Amino acid sequence: MTDLLTRTIAAITPLDADAMRAAEARQLQLTKPPKALGRLETLSIQLAGIQGKAQPVIESKAIAVMAADHGVTAEGVSAFPAEVTPGMVFNFAAGGAAINVIGRHVGARVLVTDVGVNADLSAAEGVRQKKVRMGTANMAQEPAMTREQAVRAIEIGIELVEEELGKGLDIIATGEMGIGNTTAASAVIAALTGEPAATVTGRGTGISAAALPAKVAVIEKALAVNQPDAADAIDVLAKVGGLEIAAMTGVFLGGAAHRIPVVMDGFISAAAALAAVRLCHECVDYILPSHVSIEIGHQVVLDELGLVPLFDLQMRLGEGTGAALSMSIIEAAARILSEMATFESAGVAGDPSDADAELTR
Amino acid sequence: MTDLLTRTIAAITPLDADAMRAAEARQLQLTKPPKALGRLETLSIQLAGIQGKAQPVIESKAIAVMAADHGVTAEGVSAFPAEVTPGMVFNFAAGGAAINVIGRHVGARVLVTDVGVNADLSAAEGVRQKKVRMGTANMAQEPAMTREQAVRAIEIGIELVEEELGKGLDIIATGEMGIGNTTAASAVIAALTGEPAATVTGRGTGISAAALPAKVAVIEKALAVNQPDAADAIDVLAKVGGLEIAAMTGVFLGGAAHRIPVVMDGFISAAAALAAVRLCHECVDYILPSHVSIEIGHQVVLDELGLVPLFDLQMRLGEGTGAALSMSIIEAAARILSEMATFESAGVAGDPSDADAELTR
Question: Structure pTM?
Answer without folding.
Answer: 0.97
